[in-house]
Amino acid sequence: THAPVVDVLGSKYGVGETVTVKGWVRTRRDSKAGLSFIALHDGSCFDPVQIVALNTLPNYNDVQRLTAGCSLAVVGTVKESQGQGQAVELEAVSVDIMGWVENPDTYPMAAKRHSIEYLREYAHLRPRTNVIGAVTRVRNCLSQAIHRFFHERGYFWISTPILTASDTEGAGEMFRVSTLDMLNIPKTEQGDVDYRQDFFGKETYLTVSGQLNVETYCTAMSKVYTFGPTFRAENSNTSRHLAEFWMIEPEVAFADLSDVAQLAEDMLKYVCKAVLEERADDMAFFAERINKDVIKRLESLVSSDFVRMDYTDAVSILQASSKTFEFPVEWGVDLSSEHERYLAEEHVGAPIIMQNYPKDIKAFYMRINDDNRTVAAMDILAPGIGEIIGGSQREERLDVFDRRLEEMGLSKEDYAWYRDLRRYGTVPHSGFGLGFERLVAYVTGMQNVRDVIPFPRTPGNASF
Ligand code: 4AD
Ligand code: MG
Predict the structure, then answer these.
(1) In the structure, which protein residues have their CB atom closer than 6 angstroms to any atom of ligand 1?
(2) Which residues contact 170 (CB under 8 A, 6 or more apart)?
(3) For tag attachment on the chain, is the N or C end more exposed, with fewer CB atoms within 10 Å?
(4) What is the b/e burial string over 120-157, where b = at least 16 CB atoms within 10 angstroms of the residue's CB?
(5) What value of ipTM does the predicted structure carry?
(6) CDD domains given for it (predicted)?
(7) pTM for the whole structure
């Protein structure tokens, strides 16, 4: 005869067992019967554990002074709970108060509902809240699932550099790196080099994408991916742009656009399924508090095929729609987020893989299609957020690539090493970039990417 097994802060215990838990007080209420109920959380899962502290505890007077944020180590006996709201509780044998909250009136995370904007001002304390705790667990689940997905398929994770001289996307949205030490060198000793702006004499930037670097490993290791921080010095103050965000960039040799479109679909399904299975507690919270459709949306993503659509057809659909857009649509323009959202939310109602964009609105490395005016590019557009993935087949033909460089006014010398990949055993290859924060926002239903990264970096905002 075994005692029933129950969950306490994410661990399994038998009823009647004596256990130690450590964490932070979320709430405390006292009953007239001479006992206190404390909700204690430690971040491991959504639900806190209820501690029942009886007035027979030697420090019961102190227990009655506990407020939100105090840290405790509690030894207690696991009991099935009589009360509402929780199946189990711990009857305290001892309550060791480790850290007081010096003035409960000034504690910014007092137990009440705070606005998400208010929480942003407390990036150091907001992980203690329900919502940021849930985001953090889902974000972790997604990153583990992404690594697992690629590992199971034989991909190698390549660490690409953060400091670089190349502007991968060619959009000029680079942060320039300078060496602070050199600020003190007298101008007369600097010679021709402006040390104040350069990294010991070489123009250096923070990377916007690991793609060009990872292509070199792709053309040797076949299946590779990056997962790291990337930087964009664009002055975009929107709910889907960050100056520093994380990107996952698989690159596959001997693969064409439709191969990596399928890879992207398989990956998104795999990671969304992992969240539904592993973080049901947090997803129930997001459905209740943030977006009631968020679970349904993931379930249907996992179970139905993504719609594939050509850019040219999308333009016709937008032109034929009765909706008036702020930016008019004609063939050749970049789709704006209102267009992307209309297509994904109203026209299809599910993620879309948009393919074959005009070459003039896309990057220099994308493979030119036979029509000579479009490139083998794809974006994945998700309801509620728009573009979450951008990718393409890469131009592997040296002569075509050189013509494109020339057309775009880029120099062969700057791309010498990249051209070598086309000179020595060139192969068709393709890849894409997944914006990690946009994925986390999509999965959780959170409205703003600033709330799904621990320390958001936006124009003018780099405190903490
Ligand atoms: O479309 P992008 O610019 O593509 C690339 O960087 C390619 N080198 C990827 C590749 O083919 N290997 O960016 C890829 C994704 C976007 O779809 C978007 O999800 C995200 O990165 N992204 C941003 N996320 C947050 N804040 C920003 N400022 C972002 N810019 C792009
Ligand atoms: Mg893009």
Answers:
(1) 168-169, 209, 211, 232, 241-242, 245, 247, 249, 387-392, 431-433, 435, 437-438, 449
(2) 363, 364, 408, 410
(3) N
(4) eebbeebebbbbbbbbbbbbebbbebbeebbeeeebee
(5) 0.99
(6) AsxRS_core (cd00776), EcAsnRS_like_N (cd04318)
(7) 0.95
